[in-house]
Structure to design on (126 residues):
């Protein structure tokens, strides 16, 4: 099975791909919502960052001809336990029916302004 790496045009240089297709699955790298990837605008607050994070993931998936509808597994990384409920309120909007499996882990993220990071596996047969 061949793999196909993907990065959005004009994506910042990094030592990893934003997503990789392997067969019928797309693996999306951990994506944060601290910055709107279209405007470069800083985003604050757990709910706003969760929304922006999922919007950033949607852009990557759209570039690969896929969507969140195919999500089978997500992992959410948050910096504070008290952010779990407000993060869930927004997350639920993006997965209203048959949500994917998910793990949520409390971690320290790379930059102090990052409150949430989400990675996912998408089933997207060609």
């Amino acid at each position: 099975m061949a793999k196909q790496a993907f990065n959005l045009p004009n994506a910042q240089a990094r030592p990893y791909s934003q997503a990789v297709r392997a067969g019928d699955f797309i693996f999306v790298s951990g994506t944060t919502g601290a910055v709107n990837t279209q405007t470069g605008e800083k985003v604050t607050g757990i709910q706003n960052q969760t929304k922006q994070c999922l919007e950033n993931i949607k852009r990557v998936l759209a570039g690969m001809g896929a969507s969140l509808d195919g999500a089978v597994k997500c992992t959410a990384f948050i910096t504070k336990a008290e952010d779990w409920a407000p993060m869930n309120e927004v997350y639920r909007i993006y997965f209203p029916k048959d949500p994917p499996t998910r793990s949520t882990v409390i971690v320290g993220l790379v930059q102090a302004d990052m409150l949430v990071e989400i990675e996912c596996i998408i089933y997207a047969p060609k």
About this structure: The two ends are 13 Å apart (CA to CA). The longest helix spans residues 46-63.
